[in-house]
Amino acid sequence: MKTRADTSTHTSPAASINITVDRADDVENEQSLGSSSAKEDEKHQYLGPRALTLLGGSLLLVILLVTLDVSILATAIPKITDHFHTIADIGWYPAAYMITNASLQPLTGKVFTYFSLKPAFIAFVAIFELGSLICALATSSKMLVVGRAIAGMGSSGLMNGVLTIFAVSASPSVRPTMMGLLMSFAGAGQVIGPLIGGALTEHASWRWCFWINLPVGAVTIVATMFIGFPVYKAGKTNWTFRDVIRDFDITGFAIFAPACIMLLLALEWGGSTYSWSSATIIGLFCGSAGAIIAFIIWEYRQGESAMIPVSLVRQRVIYSCLINAMFQYGGMTVFVYYLPLWFQVIKSLSPTMSAVNILPTFALQITSAILIGALTPYFGYLAPPATMGSAFVTIAAGLTSTLTTHTGAGKYVGYQILNGVGRGITMQQPIQAVQSIVSPAMIPVATATVAFAQTFGAALFISLGQTTFINLLSHALRTYAPDVNAQDVINTGATNYLATLPAGGANADTRHGVLRAYNHAITSTFYLCVGCGAGAFVASLGLGRTKLETKKDKKKRDQEKEDAQNRSEADERRGDISSSSGLMESGTSGSARDGTS
């Protein structure tokens, strides 16, 4: 079925995209959602219940795979730092994955627009698996970082692919509930990720955190091969090198990727490897700023063919969703990585038990995500849950920053419950809002842009978190434990160094000082979560009255459609009667004239 793209003075190749769906017998016709910018009456084909169930199972596997890999290192990082005898790269283990992920995200929107979803999707899974294999075989911390970077390249297409396939497969009436289910699986991946990572690290080896991806990825590839995906086909099939450069905006990507990398390198190295006033850091910041300005100018000139169309991101709802997604995922990533570290260092818990202790966050995140997904078809508006959830997250992060070495379970469990509820009701709103106001032809690019905002936010704030942690730890060690060498503590790793300091005896004061220093450094990273929550709250106000089609709206629309059809049929019947009457009168007049003659 051909899908109309928004018209403009500049004709984009995306405007001629054809969208077809395998298993046509399972397709149901419904109107697509939208606002004035997305043609509310545009027709689109969606999968029926049987095909959607089969497809959904495969998508859930992929969501689980991606989120598992993001969080599985949360409880394994202390053991990894002990194995390689350094914590200098602790921020790079997640950041390398996210830098490549974020840099490639916008480009994957073009890939899924112009190429068949299934082979492109499987190719991204294969790249992800290669990166996981390198991580599992890593013989140095640097090799592990390289493997994480390659895995991030593959992951860049997985989340966007899942969201794109789902957006064109599920009808608007069931999409919120299904999206809630998908997001709950994303939460489940974050729940079982630390649990699996902790168990494998404690009872086998941290390397199994990566080996486990291989069979899961293999199952995903096999499953997707037998599922009928919606297929995007470009308007032209004969590609030339010039076509690829123009339509995929390779020039834009060549400007965009270095801008991201330079910015994140500056944040990662600043205050640790190099001083903030060093020529290296200043040069990276200046280079990043210059590249970003050049990228914006280039994208503006490219129009609708741009990797990130300016006409898309300048819409209030779109840029509000991008900002909200960036802050939400940035704060969540910092929380996921540093709360388990607090449990292991301050509470002396094993990796497995530290994962068990963060279950309240993700259990409530799953529950609230499913609940809000089920309720959305009844009230439709996206701003209220996004705003309320962001407020909950901000308050919870502020409370978590007050943790001390003596904080009891009642407080840190309660803080996590508030955090989990907040994230569960807000994290799916940006994707739903963006997909609801763009035409189907623009869904891959729009989804990739939101996915980029999420990934970039996570990479940005985990780098800021690492910088904050290392700098404050060095300062706090000099304050609370002046007898120890701060660099020795940093290089040795938290759990290894504390193991050399018995709880009693002459080392008791030193041990207590080291614990206070670690507590101060870790809890200070949660201030970033407070800022992220506040930023997400402000951005959520930009959603305004964005509304998904509710069941009541659908019923009203169907009734109006039926009434219009009935009126049309009635008009046709009246026309037929009038025509028949006219013919009869004509026949009677003719007979009368014949009689007179």
UniProtKB/TrEMBL annotation:
<feature type="region of interest" description="Disordered">
    <location>
        <begin position="549"/>
        <end position="597"/>
    </location>
</feature>
<feature type="transmembrane region" description="Helical">
    <location>
        <begin position="180"/>
        <end position="200"/>
    </location>
</feature>
<keyword id="KW-0812">Transmembrane</keyword>
<feature type="transmembrane region" description="Helical">
    <location>
        <begin position="212"/>
        <end position="232"/>
    </location>
</feature>
<feature type="transmembrane region" description="Helical">
    <location>
        <begin position="273"/>
        <end position="297"/>
    </location>
</feature>
<dbReference type="InterPro" id="IPR020846">
    <property type="entry name" value="MFS_dom"/>
</dbReference>
<feature type="region of interest" description="Disordered">
    <location>
        <begin position="1"/>
        <end position="21"/>
    </location>
</feature>
<feature type="transmembrane region" description="Helical">
    <location>
        <begin position="90"/>
        <end position="108"/>
    </location>
</feature>
<feature type="transmembrane region" description="Helical">
    <location>
        <begin position="358"/>
        <end position="381"/>
    </location>
</feature>
<dbReference type="InterPro" id="IPR011701">
    <property type="entry name" value="MFS"/>
</dbReference>
<feature type="transmembrane region" description="Helical">
    <location>
        <begin position="145"/>
        <end position="168"/>
    </location>
</feature>
<feature type="compositionally biased region" description="Low complexity">
    <location>
        <begin position="577"/>
        <end position="591"/>
    </location>
</feature>
<dbReference type="InterPro" id="IPR036259">
    <property type="entry name" value="MFS_trans_sf"/>
</dbReference>
<keyword id="KW-1133">Transmembrane helix</keyword>
<feature type="transmembrane region" description="Helical">
    <location>
        <begin position="441"/>
        <end position="464"/>
    </location>
</feature>
<dbReference type="GO" id="GO:0022857">
    <property type="term" value="F:transmembrane transporter activity"/>
</dbReference>
<feature type="transmembrane region" description="Helical">
    <location>
        <begin position="52"/>
        <end position="78"/>
    </location>
</feature>
<feature type="transmembrane region" description="Helical">
    <location>
        <begin position="317"/>
        <end position="338"/>
    </location>
</feature>
<feature type="transmembrane region" description="Helical">
    <location>
        <begin position="525"/>
        <end position="544"/>
    </location>
</feature>
<dbReference type="GO" id="GO:0005886">
    <property type="term" value="C:plasma membrane"/>
</dbReference>
<dbReference type="Pfam" id="PF07690">
    <property type="entry name" value="MFS_1"/>
</dbReference>
<protein>
    <recommendedName>
        <fullName>Major facilitator superfamily (MFS) profile domain-containing protein</fullName>
    </recommendedName>
</protein>
<feature type="compositionally biased region" description="Polar residues">
    <location>
        <begin position="8"/>
        <end position="19"/>
    </location>
</feature>
<feature type="transmembrane region" description="Helical">
    <location>
        <begin position="120"/>
        <end position="139"/>
    </location>
</feature>
<feature type="transmembrane region" description="Helical">
    <location>
        <begin position="244"/>
        <end position="267"/>
    </location>
</feature>
<comment type="similarity">
    <text>Belongs to the major facilitator superfamily. TCR/Tet family.</text>
</comment>
<feature type="compositionally biased region" description="Basic and acidic residues">
    <location>
        <begin position="549"/>
        <end position="576"/>
    </location>
</feature>
<keyword id="KW-0472">Membrane</keyword>
<feature type="domain" description="Major facilitator superfamily (MFS) profile">
    <location>
        <begin position="55"/>
        <end position="547"/>
    </location>
</feature>
